[in-house]
Amino acid sequence: xxxxxxxxxxxxxxxVKFHFFKSYLKRIIISGAFALLAILYYINKDEFSLSGTxxxxxxxxxxxxxxxxxxxxKTKKLPEKDGTILGVKEYEFGEETIxxxxxxxxxxxxxxxxxxxxxxANAIYLYTDAEMAFVIPKRFFINKLEIEDxxxxxxxxxxxx
Length: 161
What we know:
PH-domain like; elongated
């Protein structure tokens, strides 16, 4: 199966956001909750103030959420225009290997390099490591049947059918 993609900054941002929510969100929330509880304990150790506790908690949560949002938003600007992430990539998913070609490089990988497949509303991610994945936006498939055929092929190669 051959697929030609053109990865945009938006595609990359959606991948980073998807990966963050799948892999890190729970840890970030737990860390933030522990930090908030520790600060509230310190603030209220001498005298408890309900209004102060509520006010500080709301401010902390808003600041924490804003920090996460800004951090994720900055990832849109990370890939360089002439780097290896953005731009046109031609993939051929063969029986034994996955080959790729870009305007500046080409190569091939054994299927064994793919550790798992994840799917979002807009793309399929073929993870080669805990933090790295091939981004295959769904808009480059002809129709939903081709998406399902691709997912079936990947599942067969990963022995998860």
